[in-house]
Write a structure and sequence with these properties.
By secondary structure, the chain is of the alpha/beta class. Helix content is 40%, strand content 36%. It has 3 helices and 4 strands; from the N terminus they run ββαβαβα. Helix 2 crosses helix 3. The chain starts with a strand and ends with a helix.
Length: 86
């Protein structure tokens, strides 16, 4: 289960995620991000599990316009490996 909280201020949009990020959540998140006009920050402090299949998508988000906050070390490591494999 993934809980998504969205908050906005004058400078950016913050998405705080908690729980598990599975493959089926990617389309929902991507659609939400595509609708935003302000810069996006993605807070991953409360994420407990990420499917490996999701990591390349998160790496693309991070490489584009989405800033990752409080990213768990294991996920940063996977993102780094994904970028190096590209």
């Amino acid at each position: 289960m993934l809980k998504i909280l969205r908050s906005v201020n004058s400078a950016n949009v913050l998405y705080s995620l908690s729980g598990r990020i599975d493959r089926e959540h990617i389309a929902e998140l991507q659609a939400a991000f595509d609708a935003e006009t302000l810069p996006i920050k993605l807070d991953l402090r409360e994420v407990r599990r990420v499917d490996r299949e999701v990591v390349p998508t998160i790496a693309r988000w991070s490489a584009s316009r989405i800033e990752l906050l409080n990213c768990p070390a294991y996920l940063r490591n996977w993102i780094g490996k994904t970028r190096n494999d590209s």
